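Please produce the structure of this protein holding glutathione.
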Amino acid sequence: MAPYSVYVRAVRLALEEKGVAYRLDPVDVFAKDGPPASLLERQPFGRIPAFEHDGFRLYEAGAIERYVDEAFPGPALQPSAPRERARVNQLTSILDSYAYRTLVWDIYVERVSVPKQGRAPDEARIQTALPKAQLCLRAINDLMDDGPYLAGAALTLADLHAAPMFAYFTLAPEAEALLAEQPAIKAWWASMSRRPAVQATAYPA
Ligand SMILES: N[C@@H](CCC(=O)N[C@@H](CS)C(=O)NCC(=O)O)C(=O)O
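Below is the modeled complex.
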C-alpha cells in the first residue's frame, strides 16, 4: 500500500498506536493503466487500503481501523459509552464526506502537488474550497468540547482518521489563516504532529 495515501496512513496510525506489527505491500493505485488486478481482487473500487489479517480480508479504512482497535490488545481507541462512541463515528463521517476532498484534493493537491508537477493550480477550485474548509473546521471545532482530542479527553480513531488529512492540508499556505480561526484544532494538530506514530508514518519519511 502506498505510504503517501491518507487512508493507508490512518490505518497505519491505528496499528502503530495499538502496537501491532504490520507489513505494507506496495501498490501503485494511480498506475497509468489503472489499479492492478491484484488490488481489484481485494478492493473492487480500486482504492487503498486493502487489509488482511490471518486470512481475513477487509477494505474501507474506517472499518479496518475499528477492526484493528477491537481485534488487538493495546489502548482502546474508541470510547465505550454510546454517545462518546457516536461522536467518534460522526467525526469520521464528517472527515470522509466533507473534509477529505476539500482539505486534501481541492486545497493541498491543487496548491502544493499540482505546481510540483509543473502545472498551474486551479485557483477557482481553491477559492471555492476555502469556505467549505472553513465550515469543516468549524463543525469539527464545535464537536471538540474541551478537547484536547477531537472527541474529548482521550485519543480516539477520530484523531487518527483526521491526522493524515491535516498533515497534507497544513502544507498549503491557506491552512494558516483557516486554522487561526480555530485555535483548538490548531493546538490539536501541533500536538498530534509530534506523536511518535504520526512521525513514524510521515510521508515523505
Ligand atoms: N472509502 C475508501 C477511500 C479510500 C481512498 O480514497 N483511497 C485513495 C488514496 S488515499 C485512493 O485509493 N485513491 C485512488 C483513486 O482515487 O483512484 C476507504 O475508506 O478506504
